[in-house]
Amino acid sequence: MGKSARTTGLLLVITGAIFWGISGTVAKKLFQQIDVNWLVTTRLLIAGVLLLTLQFLLKDRTQIWGVWKNRTTGYQLIIYGLVGMLSVQYTYMASIKSGNAAVATLLQYLAPIMIIIYLILRKHIVFTRKDLSAISLALVGCFFLLTNGSISQLSVPKIAIVWGLLSAIALAFYTLYAIPLLKQYDSLVIVGWAMVIGGFGLSLIHPPWQMDFKSLTLETYLYLAFVIIFGTMIAFWFYIESLQSLSPKETSFLGSLEPLAAVLTTVFWLKEPFGFFQWIGVLCIIGLILLLAFNKKSSPKKHPKKDKKPPRAVNPEAQR
Fold first, then answer.
1. Does residue 240 contact residue 187 with C-beta atoms inside 8 Å?
2. pTM for the whole thing?
């Protein structure tokens, strides 16, 4: 893997995570008028269609329907859309609804640890001191960013913890399960169809057309457009695309930029105070980025030269 490809991967996952975090702050404004379930359903359906449209206009359009010609691949894509994409979205939102965003995000960022444990058990990687440092920086950084060092803010019902843990499992699955599909098809096709499948599945429970659109203001539509285009379509696409040149543990670690972006936009946009321990959290996340950026070896296992794709068994989020 060349240096330029790795640099591109880092830029993609960093940009995607930042968009996730900003869209989370924007979503807080949207929730004043829009139901959470409606937002998740709508953002998945619209973003998925937009991604498939990009594939049709810019890349190999035959892949859009070609992915369904292979029965095995079709089944994998359905599983990825429902168990991966939809589960990541729904479990995270359910954890927030049952508890709070701080606990939900902290629990979701147990995903990198789950990925590392999985890869170690499958003997794809060897646990190193850098892995330990990355785990510590990610968890400590997220904790301080979201709580400002106050344990009292983590007091939530047990159901919120259950949803949060399921969210971490879903994010780990979402990251790992994409690899065999990415070996055969463009990321636009995989992410696009996964969003359409996940959105369609949730629409059976929460139909997106059940909304009083006349009550929505122009500002609401602008916020909604940002969440769908930048916080969903581009964020998920860049996250999955980064797996072409980064290892799954690196991609999931760099997802820690999501809470950093969310906290910073909350401070400077919503004018909420920023505490001393939150600045420590910022330094931890910056340290994590530098640690991964200067780590030349992304994975002990070498990627096959064919299509420059990661191996099938190798390879968080967010969103979110």
1. yes
2. 0.78
